[in-house]
Amino acid sequence: IFKWLTAEIGAASNFSNSNSAPVNGLGFSRSIMPYEILKDESGDLVLWNYGKSQFEIDRLIALGLNDETYNPLNERNNFEGTGRSIYIRWQGGLTAKITKSLNLEIKYQEERGNGYGKSYYTKNAYRVKSMVNDAAQLIGGKIVKNIPDGGQIYETRNDWRSYTLRSQLNFDKKIAGLHQITAIAGAERRS
Questions:
Q1: Helix/strand/coil (H, E, C) string of the chain?
Q2: Which residues of the chain have pLDDT under 70?
């Protein structure tokens, strides 16, 4: 701007849309054992006792509740996940040369963003069947479903904003070619 004053400015942004998988790299809440298989030699799905024993699953089915046997390949058609996010950052600064050895920097940066995610689980998704079963009660010999049968939608929304304001005095002087004094003093405010 002037011989004694310089300015800088910059900006960055990121806009994204995503689709997510129901079983992310088989990264469900327990580890897969090396001997577990997804399909048998005939190509039929091998059902796993994911959260409950086969005895408990059979008992729930006999009561009229959902079958909670699990295979990750079944989940592929029972889930749809989408999301989007926006991120914007801008920053600027001024540097004023007060003397040959002393300058003042004032810098500001602001970041803003928001995101939205939506997950739809069909009524056949393991997560839905397990939730319906876990919330059911046996009252007077009858099953009471406290969560209705059917698909479920989960939505998440978020917004954020942050800023940083920084001022700093820089002193750097060489004395008689033998000694050098360097010092900084500053303040910073963040939110």
A1: CECCEEEEEEEEEEEEEEEECCCHHHCCCCCCCCCCCCECCCCCECCECCCCCHHHHHHHHHCCCCCCCECHHHHCCCEEEEEEEEEEEEEEEEEEECCCCEEEEEEEEEEEEEEEEEEEECCCCHHHHHHHHHHCEEECCEEECCCCCCCEEEEEEEEEEEEEEEEEEEEEEEECCCEEEEEEEEEEEEC
A2: 22-33
